[in-house]
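Entry 14: structure prediction run for 3-oxoacyl-ACP synthase. Input pasted below.
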Amino acid sequence: MTEKDLPSAALVHKSAFVRQNYSNEWLECNLNAFPRYLIYVADIDNEIVGYIIWVQKSGFRPEAVLELEQLAVMPNSQGNGIGRKLIVESLPQVKNQLALKQSILKHVLVTTRADNYAQELYKSTLGAEVETTISNLYSADEVLMIARNIGKQT
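Run finished. Output tokens:
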């Protein structure tokens, strides 16, 4: 994501996360936190239809633990494999970015609503498994999923 992508990505955020506010500010502050925050967009015919935010947790480490912090796709573009493509195509770029700091990917954390069908996406693309449920964290129960030793996967 670049600064010029912010207005369009903010529309995706606003559409995907209707209970959240200040979409442009949210994405801008994350974009400004590079390289801790690594953000990629999906576009179709020069229109941004989705984005993914990866976050390095607990410092720049030789073995990085990342959080897939946010994945969003415009509602009218959902169900077309865009979320899957964002994960699969951005992850090698994330690993390359980590390598610039002599780091490799160890684990990936994901939190999502307990009733979110995207859990299957995280399981099939990352190998993430539900570790625990956190009651009433945001708008409902959340699950913490972890994909362990993902850097060793091909």
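Notes: The first helix runs from residue 6 to 16. Will compare against the previous run tomorrow.
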